[in-house]
């Protein structure tokens, strides 16, 4: 089992860990703890490297297998039990944190003010998109949404993360904002992300601690993806 450091603290840039196991066919190592986010929910995986035995192993892919995180690396695999130092590509991670929180702000505003569920989403550093259950989406409404999401950035709302037992989490109204509940039935603990005063939903990704860190959100495009499926695309400044 890998202790997922990013679940409780998205600001960890480096960490020490021990190698639990190896997968030579993948050239991968499993660690007892990691700050590397493996990707999921539309958020890409982290980048970075492992330092071990005075060498550097670039992490080229991260895979989750049950409760174990595998780090696919370039270079010769160290031995089981070896101590490593993991270092994230912080610029990449922090841009994704800002983008992910921006999408939650967008989701929170659209749900609060228009009652529209999310039908899909994806992101890359400083750019993302969300699809909503809108029948119509005109320029006037898009500009209104853009103003409202930036009002929430300016409100400097705290972002809180908690791990809750599944039964307790699902007593929270509207915890799942997607059209389809994507949370597997075997998950016994649910991680929630709350933008205080705006939004509370189940989420496994990494976020900033306050909406002010997001910066200005620009709606750069919107389009129809079906009769009641409309896409809003956003970008953030560097």
Overview of the molecule:
By secondary structure, the protein is of the alpha+beta class. The chain has helices at residues 90-114, 139-154, 166-169; strands at 3-4, 14-23, 28-31, 33-34, 48-52, 55-65, 68-73, 83-88, 118-124, 127-132, 159-165, 189-195, 199-202, 217-224, 230-236. The protein is built from three helices and 15 strands. It is elongated. It folds into two domains: 3-88, Elongation Factor Tu (Ef-tu), domain 3 (Beta Barrel); 93-236, Threonyl-tRNA Synthetase, Chain A, domain 2, CATH 3.30.980. The chain has a six-stranded antiparallel beta barrel with strand order 2-3-7-6-5-8. Helix content is 19%, strand content 39%. The two termini are 36 Å apart.
List keywords for this structure.
single chain, 238 residues, alpha+beta, Threonyl-tRNA Synthetase, Chain A, domain 2, 2 domains, six-stranded antiparallel β-barrel, four-stranded antiparallel sheet, 19% helix, 39% strand
């Amino acid at each position: 089992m890998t202790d997922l450091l990013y679940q409780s603290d998205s600001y960890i840039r480096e960490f020490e860990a021990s190698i639990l196991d190896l997968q030579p066919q993948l050239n991968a190592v499993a660690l007892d703890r990691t700050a590397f986010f493996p990707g999921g929910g539309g958020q890409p995986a982290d980048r970075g490297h492992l330092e071990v035995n005075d060498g550097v192993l670039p992490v080229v892919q991260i895979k989750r297998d049950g409760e174990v995180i595998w780090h696919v690396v370039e270079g010769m695999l160290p031995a089981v039990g070896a101590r490593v130092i993991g270092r994230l590509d912080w610029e990449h991670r922090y841009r994704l944190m800002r983008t992910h929180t921006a999408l939650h702000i967008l989701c929170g505003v659209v749900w609060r003010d228009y009652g529209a569920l999310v039908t899909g989403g994806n992101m890359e550093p400083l750019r993302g998109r969300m699809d909503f259950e809108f029948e119509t989406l005109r320029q006037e409404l898009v500009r209104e949404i853009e103003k409202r999401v930036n009002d929430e950035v300016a409100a400097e709302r705290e972002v809180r993360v908690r791990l809750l037992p599944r039964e307790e989490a699902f007593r929270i109204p509207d915890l799942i904002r997607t059209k389809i509940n994507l949370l597997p039935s075997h998950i016994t603990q649910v991680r929630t992300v709350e933008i205080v005063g705006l939004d509370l939903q189940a989420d496994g990704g990494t976020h900033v601690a306050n909406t002010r860190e997001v910066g200005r959100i620009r709606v750069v495009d919107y389009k129809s993806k079906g009769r009641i499926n409309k896409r809003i695309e956003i970008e953030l400044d560097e």
